[in-house]
Write a structure and sequence with these properties.
There is one protein chain. This protein is an alpha+beta fold. It has a domain of 95 residues: 2-Layer Sandwich (60s Ribosomal Protein L30, Chain: A), CATH 3.30.1330. Helices cover 27% and strands 31% of the residues. The protein has 7 helices and 16 strands. Strands 1, 12, 13, 14, 15 and 16 form a 6-stranded mixed β-sheet that branches. Strands 8-7-9-6-11-10 form a 6-stranded mixed β-sheet, with helices on one face. Strands 2-5-3-4 form a 4-stranded mixed β-sheet. Helix 2 packs parallel to helix 3. The protein is globular, with a radius of gyration of 18 Å.
């Protein structure tokens, strides 16, 4: 059964309407993904949330769901896993496949820990896309990881301080090699690998990362964008808190529908009494290239071009557009 990205995001937005944005103390944030497992969707999500709660309190949850995950079951299971007054913000994104064929969902979370984990702050590194018309995935991931290492090294981030790496791929044929390559570069990172399109037109890998800073930066927030591109290479954050939003959905595939998603994002950010120039990272989950192009063309109607945030935006499965963000 094909489940649209639009429907998935709309379901989570309905279930978690009272929780569209949440704040976490930067020094106490953790980034984890739960082990993949089989079983019913409800059981997979229940067990994943139990695993994640062992590390801290989840404040932001992303569920990457394959077409095998029944839509209603995903929404119900996520809602059931959290008491109403302790629900995190949630994004549910459709993908094509996971490395474990028995698994239909990958659940990851941003959590708050009791102990101070990041005394000097964090850096969020934009997705580093590498692609080729055909061929193996492993050489592409090496290039993506090299770019991550170069950006991290430019901020004196040690390899062992990279906390999470997500690699979004056109194929899982080399998934074991991809995972091994990530861990060879960043041995302590929490690693997730997924195929995000069932019928890609080329081979690609895009990996993004979160890392702990080794020295306290002079500024509360700095966007690394040396070429003044449409997105920053990275967001360096030592502000006391970071805001996380749920995913907001387009209502249609035309410009008006994309503007609805962007306007909803803007409303959520402003509800925390901050302006859009405080947005530091935006993730977009379009279901096709046309929607990705529309998002890129329209995003600066609400985002601030002179403060372009870091970003990961690729074509995922589904038919709609979802967008979420981090701010300070």
């Amino acid at each position: 059964m094909k489940v649209s990205l639009l429907a998935l995001v709309l379901t989570s937005a309905t279930l978690f309407a009272q929780t569209s944005i949440v704040a976490g103390e930067t020094a106490h944030l953790l980034f984890r993904s739960a082990p993949l497992r089989g079983g019913s969707v409800g059981r997979q999500i229940e067990d994943a949330v139990k695993d994640l709660k062992k590390s801290g309190l989840p404040i932001k949850v992303r569920v990457f769901a394959t077409p095998a995950a029944e839509l209603k079951a995903v929404g119900e299971a996520v809602a059931k896993a959290f008491p109403p007054k302790m629900r995190p913000v949630v994004s549910v994104i459709q993908i094509a496949r996971l490395p474990d064929a028995a698994a239909s969902v990958l659940v990851e979370a941003v959590l708050t820990a009791t102990n101070i984990e990041n005394p000097n702050g964090l850096v969020f590194i934009s997705g580093q896309l590498t692609q080729a018309p055909s061929g193996a995935i492993a050489p592409l991931v090496e290039r993506s990881l090299a770019n991550l290492s170069m950006i991290a090294g430019g901020m004196d981030v040690r390899a062992e301080d990279v906390l999470r790496v997500n690699c979004y791929s056109s194929s899982l044929e080399d998934h074991a090699q991809v995972r091994a390559a990530v861990l060879a570069s960043f041995a302590r990172a929490d690693v997730s690998v997924m195929q995000i399109q069932r019928t890609p037109t080329s081979q690609f890998v895009e990996c993004d990362a979160v890392a702990r800073l080794n020295a306290k930066p002079a500024q509360a927030v700095r966007l690394i964008n040396p070429t003044q591109a449409a997105f920053a290479q990275a967001a360096v954050v030592n502000a006391p808190r970071i805001l996380f939003t749920s995913a907001f959905a387009s209502t249609s595939s035309d410009d008006a529908g994309v503007r609805v998603a962007l306007a909803s994002l803007q409303t959520a950010v402003q509800s925390a009494r901050v302006t859009m120039d405080h947005v530091i990272y935006v993730s977009a989950y379009p279901g096709n290239q046309a929607l990705l192009d529309k998002f890129r063309a329209l995003r600066f109607e609400v985002l601030v071009r002179s403060n372009a945030p870091a970003s990961t935006n690729l074509v995922f499965e589904g038919t709609g557009l979802g967008v979420d963000a981090m701010a300070w």
